Amino acid sequence: MTALIRADLDQLAPYVPGRNVPGAIKLASNEVAAGPLPSVREKLAAAGAEINRYPDSGAGALTERLARRFGVETSQVALGCGSVSLCQQLVQVTCTAQAEVVFPWRSFEAYPTQIHVVGATRVPVPLTADHRLDLDAMLAAITPATRLVFVCTPNNPTGTALTGAELRGFIDAAPRDVLIIIDEAYREFVDDPEVHDGVAVTTEAWARGHGNVAVLRTFSKAYGLAGLRVGYCIAPEPVTEALRKVFVPFSVNSLAQTAAIASLDAEDELMQRCKAIVAERYRVRDELLGMGYQVPPTQANFVWLPLGERTQAFNEHCMDHRVIVRAFVTGGDGDGARVTIGDPHENDAFLAAARTFQH
């Protein structure tokens, strides 16, 4: 590291995306195998003729559409280049070097990196033995220095989700000077009626006088727009106003805005596709359980295999079968493999590999 760069970045591990090997089945990044809906592709083709112009930096049409969709004011919606960029912006607008951020672990890998970059203190809270967020322990980890808490549900990479009652209890018990972020990138795959809509929980919290709750969502997963990078935050106006101050101008490009609006237009079709993915999720999990694997109940478009010290061997075994999974290996009890639910053919290939692994 040269003198021009912060010395503490030597200790910062970069975000590691899922591998992409030509000719292999990629089940590592929680992408939707079918891609954008046909009507969305048509709108994208037409919008391509105008990419010589800058996009609407405020994404006014998309912001208005999302506000109408969720029954909030346009001033309560902020857009970002994927929800991961909004995570970073939320850390920036709430934290200084004296701040602390509480988050579950294992959870979304970007959290600790983004916290470190602003110089704040990372406060990871271990999951429970059944791979769920430990809300009591997260509450206990909050101190007067805590500025932000990430609550990832369904949790990435374990797929476990919080009920509405659990979320409401956490919000009511947390200090009101701490911003609570409900990060639900996988909401569209939830089919458990006890796992309430995070936007509804957030707006209910506002009505109860909690102005410290916000929700994050993305078009990358269920909508099949991972390559276009567009996410959104629904939050109290002081939060969205601050997010717009640190937003990189034009970072939500014109194609992303067009595709997101077109996807909302085709939401009924999208949800039918999500139901098919959920059906495959149950099939894959049931077969893995039948093979003797431990697989927590999941409400996302992936399954989690807590393999411990066998994780890397499982990863290599799948690669030998031309299937790419996402291995999380740190040398601790939280090691495991996350496997995206693909189309039935892809899932069958993964199950064939899993069946021959000596676990």
Walk me through what this model shows.
The chain is globular. The protein is an alpha/beta fold and 359 residues long. The mean pLDDT is 94. It has helices at 38-47, 60-70, 83-94, 110-117, 135-141, 164-173, 198-207, 237-246, 254-265, 267-290, 311-320, 344-355; strands spanning 25-26, 77-80, 100-105, 121-126, 146-152, 179-183, 213-218, 231-234, 302-305, 323-324, 326-328, 336-340. 38% of the residues lie in helices and 15% in strands. It is built from twelve helices and twelve strands. Strands 2-8-7-6-5-3-4 form a seven-stranded mixed sheet, sandwiched between helices. Helix 7 (198-207) links the parallel strand 6 and strand 7.
Q: Report strand order across the widest sheet.
A: 2-8-7-6-5-3-4
Question: Any idea what the radius of gyration is?
Answer: 20 Å
Shape: globular
Mean pLDDT: 94
Brief synopsis:
38% of the residues lie in helices and 15% in strands. With 359 residues, the protein is α/β, with parallel strands linked by helices.
